[in-house]
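Translate structure to sequence.
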């Protein structure tokens, strides 16, 4: 078995920390196999019409984890606890994710522009077991580097302040995975990396409480990680 890359080490460490923490209840955990590393995109992409001009650069390819699947669904605390936290993530090898169909997010009220926009998405992280309707996607566009990362939350349009269910994230693909390792997939952590949502609004009370509890508890549960920047981001969005 080959030696894990730096991002793979971070993700595998986060996975193991969840499993080793006696205060966390894990409902499902999958740690897949490591595949061959790439310094450039597989040759297949150069032959596919939809990928002409798409920038899959060396930095992205070499820095992407080559794990068949890494997934976890966990809880901390009881339903009545103010500090109850839940988390879920499911990530796969990037190139496998890129070759899958776009997520089926359009509905009868979607505009043609929005439908076309969703065809550019490829899911890099989702929450199938918690059924929260949340996912993160990388947007496939020619001549764009780095590729954009977007977050979809089906509950967003139930708020008074939102007219759409998705927001852009101020993260590259590799940065997304680095923050996933730090947050352990705490539901809603992605809102710390968008300026389109103010977490101090009453509509985001549940998300705000989860993230506040995470930043109070995780420095104790996972002392190997630095939560200073995430705390600053939460404060800036209240």
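Result:
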């Amino acid at each position: 078995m080959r030696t894990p890359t730096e991002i793979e080490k971070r993700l595998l460490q986060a996975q193991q920390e969840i499993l080793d923490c006696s205060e966390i209840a894990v409902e499902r955990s999958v740690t897949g196999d490591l595949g061959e590393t790439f310094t450039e995109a597989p040759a297949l992409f150069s032959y596919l019409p939809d990928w002409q001009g798409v920038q899959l650069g060396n930095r992205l390819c070499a820095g992407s984890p080559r794990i068949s699947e890494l997934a976890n669904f966990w809880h901390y605390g009881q339903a009545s606890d103010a500090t109850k936290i839940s988390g879920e993530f499911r990530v796969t090898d990037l190139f496998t994710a890129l070759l899958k169909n776009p997520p089926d997010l359009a509905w009868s009220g979607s505009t043609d522009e929005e439908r076309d926009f969703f065809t550019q998405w490829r899911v890099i992280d989702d929450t199938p077991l918690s059924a929260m309707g949340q996912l993160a996607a990388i947007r496939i566009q020619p001549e764009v580097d780095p590729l954009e990362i977007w977050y979809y939350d089906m509950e967003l349009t139930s708020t008074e302040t939102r007219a759409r269910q998705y927001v852009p994230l101020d993260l590259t693909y590799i940065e997304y995975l680095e923050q996933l390792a730090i947050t352990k997939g705490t539901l809603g952590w992605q809102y710390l990396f968008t300026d389109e949502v103010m977490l101090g609004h009453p509509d985001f009370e549940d998300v705000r409480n989860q993230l506040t509890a995470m930043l109070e508890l995780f420095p104790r549960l996972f002392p190997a990680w630095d939560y200073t920047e995430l705390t600053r981001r939460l404060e800036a969005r209240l």
